[in-house]
Amino acid sequence: MSDLPPIGGGDELLALARRVLGDAGGGEQVEVFAARSRSVRVDAHGGAVESLSVAESAGVGVRCIVDGRQGFAHCGTLDEASVRATLAEARDNARFAEVDPWAGLAEPDGVSPVMPPFNPEAIGALGVDDKVAMAVALERAASSADPRVTGVRVAAYADHVGEVAIVSTTGIEALSRDASAGLSVSALANDDTMTTVGGWGDAARDPRDLDVDAVAGVAVDRAVRMLGAGPIPSTRLAVVFEPRQATTLLNLLVGTLSGIAVVKGRSLFADRVGETIASPLLTLIDDPTDPRSLAADSHDGEGLACRPTALVEGGVLQGFLHNTWTARRLGTASTASASRGYRSTPGVSSGAVVTAAGSGTRDELIAGVTHGLLVQSISGVHSGVNMVSGDVSVGVEGLLITDGEIGPPVREVTLASTLQRMLLGISAVGADVEWLPGGMAVPTIVVGEMALGGR
Amino acid sequence: MSQSNTSPGADLTEVVHASVVNDTLREALSTGGEFAEVFVEDKASSSAYLDDGRVEELTSGRDRGAGIRVVVGETTGFAHTADLTPEGLATAARAAAAAARSGGGGVRTVAMPDTPYRSLRPVRIDPSGVDKADKVALLRHADEVARSRSGSITQVSAGYADSRRRILVANSDGNFATDEVVRTMFNVSCVASGDTGMQTGRESIGHTIGFELFDRYDVAELAERAAERALTKLAARPAPSGQLPVVIGSGGGGVLFHEACGHGLEADLVAKGASVFAGRTGELVASPLVTLVDDGTMAGEWGNFGIDDEGNPAQRNVLIEDGVLTDYMWDVLRARKEGRRRSGNGRRQSYQHLPMVRMTNTYLLAGDGDPNDIISSTPHGVYVAHLGGGQVNTATGDFVFGMSEAYLIEDGQITEPLREGNLIGNGPEVLARIDAVANDFAMGPPGTCGKDGQGVPVGDGVPTLRVEALTIGGTAA
User: Fold this and answer.
1) With an 8 Å Cβ cutoff, are B473 and A150 in contact?
2) Does the pLDDT at position B6 exceed 60?
3) What ipTM was reported for this prediction?
4) Helical H segments across A34-116, by residue range
5) Residues ≥6 apart with Cβ < 8 Å to A13
């Protein structure tokens, strides 16, 4: 705890990584990935603090590539002797992997990093008492917003300051840093026949930008409007995804555009670059250099500078996301999309997916639906979606739309289709692009038809 | 291959001595508080992964540290550190105490036994002593077998993982215990490609035992089953949409109970009014055919341990007996507040997390029905051989779970395979509509249960059973 200097400078992490790199043998490629973070979380319940956690985490992951064989090891400490032992373990692991002609660490490619806003002082300026006050105020605001609120399951304030240093024998030297704070609340409402839940949250780089009353208000509204909900008969209908629900659809698409899925023959869209895979209304770009995104980052998990990558333009597939290995396998360049923590080797993921605005407000999009569902929550994505076949089947709650008017709440129903059909069937994309806590920019999206399973 | 028993001396009291544990607890309570706890963890893990015909990597990891909590009034303060020296632990103890300081309890002295309660379950073949080449050979074998099954198998991946987790828990109530759990697991996934697109099949095994796992299971057999499952699904038709009777196969569907009522019986959710089962003990909450047990003592099963992460011995707890709700599951905080016995359900993902109420191995006891009769007496419905994961809204009781291998039942016969999808139901309604339970109980594959961002290993099991009606989330009319 006290042995760690304040997070933000990164010098100690870089220095440690450089010293360990000195153990690299001739003919070896070695990469040291060192991460450190400090976080605070306050949970309020019953008008008081239920728990307050102060956490400091640190760890190092080491990759070692010898004669085309890759080994990896990690340790949950910055203790130098332990990190050196971790390099030795990674080297030993490499002996048992098979030769991979494409194995290799990232090499500097001349792209300059764009540093995202980093303001740990904004979080440091907030005392523990202030953080406690925000969590308690959030619970109070949710409890008192509506007489039908009978309890609050979660009311939490959390913040995080972290830094990552990556140094390699191939010339990589990178430092990424981030700091943000957030609120999350889950309100319970009851009308004597049923209990419903409404959750909401927000995040910002400066805790002063968080609006306790607004977050509580949305959560309560979402709980209360579900009172009286029940299943409806099975039908086919249009589905309106609010921005936060539309992220589910977009994340499924982006998952299929991972270079790993393509290399392994598991991507639905592997051979479709230049072809239409979605409605012409859909344009997506992955841009972690956009400072408006809370997921903006200077470097990817291999230390390459983040950069924008076009994914879908007017429904036409533009390309895939790559780390160094998937790019080599497919004879292309990394899009700096390596993602990882210190416990794992680089995977591939998007940084900050930005959706181009369409036209119309949310109300206008709803007004254009004759028979549909406004989805408020989605469950079972991990159990009901097969990313290889594209089958999608999820549980949802929402509000029925009839002739452009929002009607009664619906629960205990499923929505099913395939990802391919949903993308081509997008019938409207709103102008209401929102920057979401997770870092994506997403508007309301309407899918023309899905199968609803109900009573 | 080396064989060894866990040596009795190899526990965490050699890393953190009893006197240091005592000093740390004293420091934690030095500014007041009702309860303090030190949780020390040392976890070593190794894994190997094969994909696309090649052993891609071997990894190993070591995570060691301590989490300290202090309870003052209604407030829990928590801090964790990777520094296990007396100074490091004292610093973390002060941080936890400061975090909890809003209350104003008096200073307490700590009474603790000199030696811990030791839970020792010997492992026959310590995985850390097994040659890495032997682990890799298992992956290659699975790959070869799956590919040789059919030319339509276009991708195979296989994973091996083992871990050894040692914990030490001491608290100001005088609990002082250590435990060690070894876990070994293996999985294989296949992709089959045909005219209708791609389909997947997966098999996994995992137990709280050592490398002797592979004396019990043949990886070739697992690989064949995974391949077969993917190939079968190439011919699958879209699942129906709407309500139908659903028969769940033996061992394939414990997740039904995990989601339909397991989470709703966790005392922390009950206390917050976030469970449809709150205030219902002693009431009929399920069909009289339902007797549901959560059992951390089940030797070798994925959710098995000696002591929970709050230092209490694992227990077998009957949650629902003949349809009547008998008890919830408890952690230390909730049990202290209610002045009741602990149930051994306080678990945490790692020393970096606060414990909460979690399931262990959750299963439905066998009934006396014949599984074939259950199917033959179902004119039209769905047979689910294997469920995937699930998710529940404990407040409404609505839950979903995926079917990863399912078939149509027509005229009492299992017929065509169905494409994947979710089922949705409401916990109390579904429990009441279980109208048949067979005598063929089996445990299912290893699982990871997620709650509030923490994952812990869990097991589940069921005999063949039928739910009168569940909503199936398919696309067919």
Assistant:
1) no
2) no
3) 0.89
4) 80-94
5) A34, A35, A36, A78, A163, A164, A165, A175
Q: How far apart are CA B164 and CA A60, in angstroms?
A: 20
Q: Which amino acid, one-letter code, is at B57?
A: E
Q: Name which of B398, B399, B418, B448 to mutate to probe chain A: the one with the most chain A Cβ atoms within 10 A of its Cβ.
A: B398
Tell me how close the Cα of B402 comes to any Cα of chain A, in angstroms.
5
Q: Do B60 and A89 touch (CB under 8 A)?
A: yes
DSSP string, A377-434: EEE-HHHHB-TTT-EEEEEEEEEEEETTEEEEEEEEEEEEEEHHHHHHTEEEE-S--E
Domains of chain B: 12-234 (3.30.2290.10), 241-473 (no CATH)
**Dihedral (CA of A80, A86, A92, A94) sign:** negative
Question: Both tokens of residue B392?
Answer: 């529940």
Name the residue ranges covered by the structural domains of chain A: 11-222, 229-455
Task: Give the three-class secondary structure for B58.
Answer: strand
Closest partner residue to A72 (CB to CB) among B59, B63, B100 is: B59
Helix, strand, or coil (residue A91): helix
Give how far A191 is from chain B: nearest CA, Å: 12
Q: Could you read off the pLDDT of B123-164 as tens digits, one per residue? A: 899 999 999 999 999 999 999 999 999 999 999 999 999 999
What is the CATH code for A11-222? 3.30.2290.10
Selected residues 126-145 of chain B with any CB under 8 Å from a CB in chain A? 132-133, 135-136
Strands B35-51 vs A284-286: parallel, antiparallel or unpaired: unpaired
